[in-house]
Write a structure and sequence with these properties.
alpha/beta, 15 helices
């Protein structure tokens, strides 16, 4: 799937949501990086095959392809967002979205190796702005969303998974892990906002943020971080499609109403996601420690 210019992405987002508040958040996130999007992505190999989008019955499935760590560099983030825009344009009142991945990793977070190769501060800001734009898209998407986590999800990869409405996790491999404490890096306030919005238990939040616990599927289910635990990778995706996905599709909810209600529920999170100045300051601190 090719990388589309960010300007056209933002325009389609504004038209399809009809929500000026969220549209302004997306515009503020992307305006500083729009001109650099294509050039940044082109420096990373494998842009065309970083993720796929298919439809099984009424369920869309975005798959991060390959057996790598699915590091969230600009190319991968643009590819996922392109898939979300297609889902938005083709969705009906009876659809759902599943995001999953091949290999041992769902996503191992930001591509810090790429960031360190040149102008680290700028590249960190670029990845952060693109992930924030992607998360805002997920929150406003007019369909229920499910993360089928079939491998490790760490740091920003964990945040990506949590930003879905439901998280299913395979039992026999992988953990959920916020690594910042262990490696001595600051954590973005908007990351904390996602965790606060999606993980209800203070005990669970302490485990994730203040103990840097590597949560297995069973522990994550016990703490209420994931919706359900399945067998292997195929069983996890099948459960997401057949059981939960089709159940949600069968509700036949109005997609626009669903998206608007979700945006209202997570209004504070959307505000945190749209805070450029605070996140730019964090990128400077992070760059100094890499």
């Amino acid at each position: 799937m090719g990388v589309q210019p960010m300007g056209s992405m933002v325009a389609r987002f504004q038209v399809s949501t009809g929500d000026p508040t969220v549209a302004s958040i997306i515009t503020s996130i992307t305006v500083s990086t729009a001109a650099e999007s294509t050039s940044a992505a082109s420096s990373i190999t494998g842009v065309m095959e970083m993720c796929t989008l298919e439809k099984r019955g009424s369920v869309f499935i975005v798959t991060l392809t390959g057996l790598n760590e699915h590091r969230l560099n600009p190319a991968l983030l643009d590819s996922i967002q392109s898939a979300l825009h297609r889902v938005r344009s083709e969705s009906s009142s009876s659809t759902a979205l599943i995001t999953t991945a091949h290999g041992k990793f769902f996503s191992n977070g930001y591509d810090l190796a790429w960031a360190k190769t040149a102008d680290t501060n700028h590249r960190l800001k670029l990845m952060d702005s693109k992930l924030r734009s992607l998360i805002a898209d997920l929150i406003s998407l007019p369909v229920p969303t499910i993360a089928a986590v079939t491998g490790h999800a760490s740091a920003a990869g964990f945040i990506l998974a949590l930003s879905h409405d439901y998280v299913l996790m395979r039992k026999d491999r992988g953990f959920l892990y916020m690594s910042e404490l262990d490696i001595g890096l600051p954590i973005a306030a908007w990351f904390v906002a996602v965790i606060r919005s999606k993980i209800g238990s203070p005990t669970a939040r302490r485990e994730v943020l203040l103990r840097a616990a590597k949560l297995t599927a069973e522990k994550a289910e016990q703490l209420g971080v994931v919706e359900a635990v399945e067998g292997g990778a195929e069983e996890t995706v099948a459960a997401a499609v057949v059981r939960l996905g089709e159940e949600l599709v069968g509700m036949r909810w109005d997609g626009h109403a669903y998206g608007q209600i979700r945006m209202a529920v997570f209004a504070d999170l959307l505000s945190a996601v749209g805070c450029d100045e605070e996140n730019d300051t964090l990128a400077v601190k992070l760059a100094s420690r890499l």
